[in-house]
Amino acid sequence: MIDFFQISQEIRKNFPALLELSDSEKDDFWLILKNTLSVEKKSLSTDQLVLLFLDSVKDTYKKVTETAIRQFIEYGREKNFDFFSITQKDIRDFISAEYGAGKSFSSVRVELSRINQFYKFLKQENQLKVVKNPFEKIELGKIDYNSKSEDILPSEEDIQTILSALPRNQAVVFAITVEKGYNLTDLYDLSFGYTEYVIENENSANPITAAFCYTKEDLWSNVPEHEDSRVIVSDSEIPDTSHYGRAGYYEYLTHPAWYNDLLFDFWLNDIISEAPENAADGPGYGELYYSNHEINLHSIDNAIVKKIKALYNEKKISAHYALKNFRWLAIRKIYEKTHDLKKIQKLLKHTTLNTTRRYLQNMGIEVKE
Fold first, then answer.
1. How confident is the model over 316-353, as pLDDT tens digits?
2. Spatial contact of 349 and 356, defined as CB atoms under 8 Å apart
3. How far apart are the first and last CA of the chain?
4. Has this prediction a pTM greater than 0.85?
5. Which residues of 81-90 are buried (b: 16+ CB within 10 A; e: fewer)?
6. How do residues 127-185 score in pLDDT, each as one tens digit?
7. CB-based contacts of 209: which residues, under 8 Å, 6+ apart?
8. What integer pLDDT is reported at residue 341 of this predicted model?
9. Residues of the chain with pLDDT > 70: what percent?
10. Can you list the pairs that 103-112 forms with residues at least 24 positions away whose Cβ atoms lie under 8 Å?
11. What does the pLDDT average to over 295-321?
12. Residue 22: how many CA atoms within 13 Å on its side-chain side?
């Protein structure tokens, strides 16, 4: 796939004429460029491509001279930009990147460049790796907390930027390796409210890895919110909590994979029962995400709930997918009853009304203005 970040940098540096376009013109520019540089026209000369492009844009781009276009195409060929591999979907995905159709290339350029800088740092450190798991997490890298500056860690603004550029159904994990017994209070302060701590002891000799999981569209919304962080360990050794220096409830399980099934059953029972009894093992336990945010799941049609549960029990759908279905049902019911977009925005913790509106529209809900 074409390296859009590299191209955007070259445009800013070498082709200021293109930057004089309006936002909507920039969107169209990329689409017309794709049509001009299609595979069928790969054999054409630069002169022919320039003429084709200028003919396509007609009077729309009076500020873009023939020279600028020629330089752009020639530079791309010199640097081996694989223009001809661009698909319209590539361009749309890049420009939109979950921003919606109205967002332009220029408005996402700076945000993507910030992500790229962090990405490049991890790549330089040979720490970049992709991991597969049920939540399709993307692990961007591991940083030794004891030897690297905290400034390397993404700020809350960086996290929002990265989330906004993520494809659907994916999450970002920043994993920080710490020595066993390290005070995790400091790590908790970096959470910005998005963090799930997953402490994994690969074996008793290895250091602990604290994984900061940031998701788009609240993919981890099936996780109960505690007054403090939750820790899961992957082996039978339960670390001493006395050094954490923070009052609160920590939940330990012998294997992280058990957690979703356990939580799903507990949460589903809460939905179906008329008067759920929350466990009293510690602060916040049982006060699940939706009840914390006033989404009344008891109002969902019991037959639908049981159908989804049956599919889950028959292993035809995952716990995550089942929970996602419940989320849609709850949000749909509340919006159709209240038509209060701001209320839904608050429930979903979305930063803008436009994001909330798009979320509802993607669910097939007609949003009343």
1. 555 545 555 556 666 676 777 778 888 777 766 666 78
2. no
3. 38
4. no
5. bebeebeeee
6. 333 332 222 333 333 333 333 334 344 455 544 554 455 444 334 444 433 333 333 33
7. 142, 175, 176, 177, 178, 198, 199, 200
8. 85
9. 7
10. 104/23, 104/24, 104/26, 104/27, 105/8, 105/23, 105/26, 105/27, 105/29, 105/30, 106/19, 106/23, 106/26, 107/23, 108/165, 109/8, 109/12, 111/161, 111/164, 111/165, 112/4, 112/5, 112/8, 112/165
11. 55
12. 6
Adjacent-strand bridge partners of 138 = 172
Provide the 10 A C-beta neighbour count for residue 23: 12
Torsion region of 126: left, alpha or beta (phi above 0 gives left; psi -120 to 50 gives alpha): left
Split at pLDDT 50, 70, 90, the class of 310 is low
pLDDT tens, position by position, 70-103: 655 665 566 555 444 444 444 444 444 433 344 3
